[in-house]
Amino acid sequence: MSQKRQLHLGLFLFSTGYHPAGWRLPEAVTDGAFDPQFLERVVTKLEEAKFDFFFLGDRLASGADEQYSFPSQMVRLEPFTMLSYLAAITKKIGLIVTVNTTYAEPYHVARMTASLDYLSKGRLAWNVVTGADQRAALNFSREKHWDNAKRYDYADEFVGVVKKLWDTWEDDAFIRDKETGEYVDKSKVHAINHVGDQFSVAGPLNVARPPQGQIPLLSAGTSERSQELGAQFSSAIFTGEILIEEAKKFYAGIKGKLNKHGREPNELFIMPGLVPLVGRTEEEARAKYFELSQLLVTDFNITALSNRIGIDLSSYPLDGPLPDLSLSTLPSEKVKALVGLAEQASGYKDISVRELFYYFAATARGHLLIIGDPEQVADQMEEWFVQEAADGFNICPPYMHDGLDLFVDLVVPVLQRRGLFRTEYEGSTFREHFGLSRPDNQFAKSATLQGAVH
Ligand SMILES: Cc1cc2nc3c(=O)[nH]c(=O)nc-3n(C[C@H](O)[C@H](O)[C@H](O)COP(=O)(O)O)c2cc1C
Predict the structure, then answer these.
(1) Predicted model pTM
(2) Distance, CA 272 to ligand 1 centroid (Å)?
(3) Using CA atoms, how far apart are residues 373 and 276, in angstroms rounded to an integer?
């Protein structure tokens, strides 16, 4: 396995594109969410480019209210079903399933993840979320979505139980000796007899230990509790950061928490979202940005934008200049940096309120938008990587398919030429793509230790 630090790249799937108006471009696909051929085309492209993973998010509630702001999130395939299909048509790429612990049972999740790790030959990872959508409660016979503390108390114990269940069958538990008729070595099968505040689970699991031993976990919450969960258990953390200085602080903060869990900084990868708006030239990329901006369906409600920059913009004309930024309630460096990103996107200074609005509409979900030619996009990625703001990126194409194709065809080769990204897969499992070793079985280990005492 190569020792040189390299970028990790994954796709964060938005079937209508990350930009709210991405699906309205003349060349865009509008109905990929339920189309196996769409998915096959996407995942094949990713695997040819040697991406680390394909990632599907999930939510447990829906409604038509998001059609103008985030259409791809309204309806989509159930993650285990979709990824089982993708596992069958791919060979190398990692697959990340999202499971919300708040509305699940550990035994179910342990078996489903272990099963999919088998079907994908060790390519699965689990994005552990606790859910931010209040409406989910109403779909699961509850009156209210739990608060942050309760959700993470539940998630912490949940993850601990699943991790134990995965280890209940030691790797060499199966003898399958035709001569003696002995199929399994009983001493290598373990109950867990877990009794905690939230769960009581006896075990063992009814699936053998998954190919990766322990399936890697990912987390993506913003709260302190989520970061703690990530520092303890996760192999990667997804974030949404658009300012490099803040991203560097987040990066250092998380890596600084690892020591107390007995972990090394290179065991956890920080992966912000990145929306690459790539053109063959800078002008082409910017023209696409303007085209997307014009296609937004919006009443220019300025409240969210006002909060974002700490200035009430309601009395400023949409096509007039921005107010004096020193009026902001936010730290002035931060506001200047945010407005600077919007100016960079437009390609000139002194942008109007409308242009600022367009920028924040394009990045409303908090991921970094980079507009430019292939070298410019690669430059910014390299800067974030070298300055330890990121170990890689969760790529969110602004529209499909070209938004992904342009990144793969034009930017990935630049990254490869610079030695920043692999040109071949060195391994075949999710763990191997990230250089993570396969953990020992916790029960086998304690048996070995006990053996050593005698
Ligand atoms: C890149 C990224 C992807 C996320 N994907 C999901 C998702 O698919 N489903 C979900 O419920 N939450 C998702 N989240 C949100 C969190 O994972 C988290 O569960 C939620 O925000 C509530 O936890 P918190 O209070 O710690 O933020 C995502 C967050 C980020 C930054």
Answers:
(1) 0.95
(2) 13
(3) 10
